[in-house]
Amino acid sequence: MSLEDLSRLRQGVYRLAGAGFSPPDDELIAGVGGATPVLDALGLFDYAFAPAIAEAVDALTASDTDSLAVAYVTLFEAGVGGAVCSPYESAHLGDSRTGEVAQIQAELKRTYLRYGLRVDEGSAGMIDHVATEMNVMATLCELGAERESSGRNLDRLALNQLEFLSDHLLRWVPQFTAKIQTANRHRFYTALAEAVHSFLEHERQLVPLIVDALAGANS
Amino acid sequence: MTTILFCTEEGALPDIEIGDAALIGVEDLCEAPRQIVSLVSDDEKELVLAVHGDRLQLGALQAAARRLGFDPLSLGLLDLGSVAEGDDLLRAVAATRARLSRFPGSRPEQVKLLSPDRSTRRGLFSIGIPTYVAAPAIEHEICVAGDGCRVCVSRCPAGALSWDGGVITNDKTSCVACGICVTSCPTGAVVNPIVTPDAIEAEISAAIGYGADLIGIRYRCREALVGSERGWHQVEVPCTGMLTVGWLLAPLVLGAKEVDAVPCDAGGCPLGNDDRLEAAIGDAATVWHVLGFEHDASASIDHQAAPMDGHRLFGHGSTVGAIQLLSTEAPEAMANLEAADVGTVTIDSDVCTACEMCANVCPTDALRSRLEDECVIIDFDPRSCVACGQCVSACPEIESNAITMTRSFDLVDWASGRREIRRESTPSCEVCGQPIAPASMLSRIESILGEDDKATLALIGRRCVNCRGR
User: Fold this and answer.
1) pLDDT of B299 above 60
2) Exposed end of chain B (fewer CB within 10 Å): N or C?
3) How far apart are CA B294 and CA A150, in angstroms?
4) What is the pLDDT of residue B117?
């Protein structure tokens, strides 16, 4: 497998996770429901996280939009004193009384700009939402795949991926997915949480290997 | 249903029959394992593959297993290079299936990605099919790191385990999955899904139960290249350094005539675990000898007996369990050992301040403390001690040797059970009547403060911490 294919596969899984954690609609079911063959063609089943991804896609195709919408609200939006499983990084790592929430969001905005990504005015409230962060990683993977295919240096992109993974996703998403699994409100969200947990656990090992490999290739 | 796939030349199967399993000969199974996707039906529950370990394309096999709906770590791999033919092969199949039947499933934390092969030419960068191995993960519900236990951290030869704020984490990048943390954890909280005590016990029991002139059980490092030897059943472990005295004795308890262990060859263990195995074998031999056995005396062992409560033949407390089951002919045996996980703790009352740190940190409750009759009492149960040394490490008076632990056992001592090893009076507060602190601790504080502050000293000795400000 080439690094380009691997980047495309990872991009696909991040996009799938980003879509899965967005408010559900018919488009989501249609789009994500057909993801497995596409990811399979990119070598999905060569990787340990494949069964969990396939299970999440199966669970989604077996779901209807209404039950997903109810589960989405009860898991990620409504709740006494806040959502049962808040999908915002700042809710997990920051204390709103000390201004840490704003600090985390501001730092994320700076990070996105540093990666060359612009934040839409209308998306300001979603800056630290799990779907946004998954899509940021998807974009970094996509850029990596494009650079690899054109033979350009992607060391910086790989380092950005490692940084974003370490400084953000791995710091809070594991506890977020654990909460979803404990809440166990809907088969799809429970399966998606397991899939994302499995995938990020794999990323924790894979991305440093990619960075090391690129450093070795340059030496 | 179980399917057993044999890597064969031109699809020829060995001349064996297994009633409840389908045997399929597969040409080039090791080099082209993806073909199993078309050979195994979707409703299979168990998959055993008899392969040549040195030729097997493991990553491709794991990918195929995933596609078939199997957890790749649940595959039963039988190395044809280490198994003889006929009864030995049938025994190996039965034992492998028994081990598989105890596979607990794996979690993402228990899957380690091996560094892929790659080209280093710029622009042609590519990686092979990834290969995974099982890695240990911590069962935090059982782990007592919150009480200060760090046995696994101190034993890990790769420095992969760390303790932070009462939580153990495993850095899989550094972890070599040798299994030492699995057998050294005092509470069984470190779990590698392919080498659980249950699975190892099931495999060895099945191999012994198969009969057919079994000579012995041979633990084999996964890296060791060991040819087959008639009558010996090989049990693959990640590293023979993980073997405890209990694991070495357990096959004898279960009915094997002999047991041995083969570490990886080629100039010694790269993890430096040769010394561990050597010490464990030496201790096992010592135990065997002091319990009255000669080279082979398994006939005098009650193979049906179960270990005493709280002990298992494998897993934590296994050495105590094995010694207990082997001791029927020598009820007064005792021995000093080099590295075994059995211990005896003694406290020097002249130095100990009865602070109870040792009891608080003890992961197996071998040491316990309580307040009774205006005294702090520390008692000790040698049958629960796994010689982890946490009590010694945690003792504030470690430089004075207030507490010492020796790797030893004394069956008379075991028979008497839990006993008091320290008692210290605790003066009561003149205001509220609650205990202030052990008298020896007050003396220690006095020795630190000296004679310069007599008022403070007098107050500390008369009032508890809550009443000193009144």
Assistant:
1) no
2) C
3) 72
4) 60
Q: For residue B202, which of B100, B109, B71, B60 has the smallest C-alpha distance?
A: B100
Q: How confident is the model at residue B451 (pLDDT cuts 50, 70, 90)?
A: confident
Count of other CB atoms within 10 angstroms of residue B393: 18
What is the nearest CA distance from A9 to chain B, expressed in angstroms? 14
The pLDDT tens digits for A108-164 are 999 999 999 987 777 777 899 999 999 999 999 999 888 877 766 777 889 999 999
**Is A102's Cβ below 8 Å from some Cβ in B?**
no
Per-residue pLDDT tens over the stretch B93-150: 999 999 999 999 999 999 999 876 655 544 445 677 899 999 999 999 999 999 989 9
Q: What tens digit of pLDDT does each residue of B313-324 get?
A: 788 788 999 999
What are residue B260's DSSP bridge partners?
Answer: B218
Q: How far apart are the first and last CA of chain A?
A: 22
What span, in angstroms and rounded, lies between the C-alpha atoms of A13 and A134? Answer: 9
Q: Are B170 and B137 in contact (CB under 8 A)?
A: yes
HSE (side-chain half, CA atoms, 13 Å) at B11: 2
B123 near A CB under 8 A: yes
Contacts of B275 (CB under 8 A, 6+ apart): none
Partner residue facing A46 (CB), from B63, B69, B112 = B63
pLDDT band at B8 (very low <50, low <70, confident <90, very high): confident
- In single-letter form, the type of residue at position A16 comes to L
SS3 (DSSP) at A204: helix
DSSP H/E element including A82? none
Q: Do residue B111 and residue A2 have CB atoms under 8 angstroms apart? A: no
> Among all residues of chain B, which has the CA nearest to that of A194?
B108
pLDDT at B121: 47
Tokens of B36: 């199993």
**3-state SS of B48-88?**
EEEECCCCCCHHHHHHHHHHCCCCHHHCEEEEHHHCCCCHH
Average pLDDT over residues A34-57: 93
Interface confidence (ipTM) of the complex? 0.89
Spatial neighbors of B292 by CB under 8 A, at least 6 apart, are B329, B330, B333
Output Rg (C-alpha) for chain A, integer angstroms. 17
Q: Which of residues 39-78 of B touch A (CB under 8 A)?
A: 59, 62-63, 66-67, 69, 71-72
DSSP per-residue letters across B328-397: TT-TT-EEE-SS-S--EEEE-TTT-----HHHHH-TTSSEEEEEETTEEEEEE-TTT-----HHHHH-TT
